[in-house]
């Protein structure tokens, strides 16, 4: 009975390989959809904090080369901070987000052709009412 067991394992390996290839192909398709000229998303308040924290940590521990130690220490410090201590970083992140939104709108307008993505004003009449009125005007 060892024979069938080995073939079923081999069959599962082939299925796993096929799934990996499919996932890789899907990732390639998604990557090609992104526009390289699009503005990058802004950093969150935590990452704005980490920019400053890395500098101070490096000054205090110049011989430390481990990225994970810096990240863990930064995460612990962020968790221990009060909301009032986090406020300057949250404000900086909000400012960066506002700049990003503005840049994103400009980029979308440029891509879509100067405001082509704006929706036309909707009236209270349904489209069928508008077509009925147009037909009445044409017949009279």
Automatic annotation (TrEMBL):
DNA-binding region per Swiss-Prot/TrEMBL record: 39-108
Similarity comment text for this entry: Belongs to the HMGB family.
Gene3D superfamilies reported for this sequence: High mobility group box domain
Region (Disordered), start-end ranges: 1-41, 64-88, 107-140
Span of domain HMG box: 39-108
Subcellular location field: Nucleus
Molecular function in Gene Ontology: chromatin binding; DNA binding; structural constituent of chromatin
CDD domains, per database record: HMG-box_AtHMGB1-like
Compositional bias annotation for Basic and acidic residues: 74-86, 118-133
Biological process, per Gene Ontology: chromatin organization
Taxonomic superkingdom: Eukaryota
This protein's name: Putative high mobility group B protein 3-like
Keywords attached to this entry: DNA-binding, Nucleus
Pfam family, one: HMG_box
SMART domains per the UniProt record, alphabetical: HMG
Cellular component terms (Gene Ontology): chromatin; nucleus
């Amino acid at each position: 009975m060892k024979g069938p067991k080995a073939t079923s394992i081999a069959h599962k390996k082939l299925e796993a390989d096929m799934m990996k290839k499919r996932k890789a192909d899907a990732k390639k398709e998604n990557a090609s959809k992104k526009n390289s000229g699009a503005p990058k998303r802004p950093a969150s308040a935590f990452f704005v904090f980490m920019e400053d924290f890395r500098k101070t940590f490096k000054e205090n521990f110049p011989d430390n080369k481990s990225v994970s130690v810096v990240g863990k220490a930064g995460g612990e410090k962020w968790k221990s901070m009060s909301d009032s201590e986090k406020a300057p970083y949250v404000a900086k992140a909000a400012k960066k987000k506002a700049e990003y939104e503005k840049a994103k709108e400009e980029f979308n307008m440029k891509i879509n052709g100067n405001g082509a993505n704006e929706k036309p004003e909707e009236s209270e009449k349904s489209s069928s009412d508008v077509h009925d009125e147009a037909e009445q005007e044409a017949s009279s």
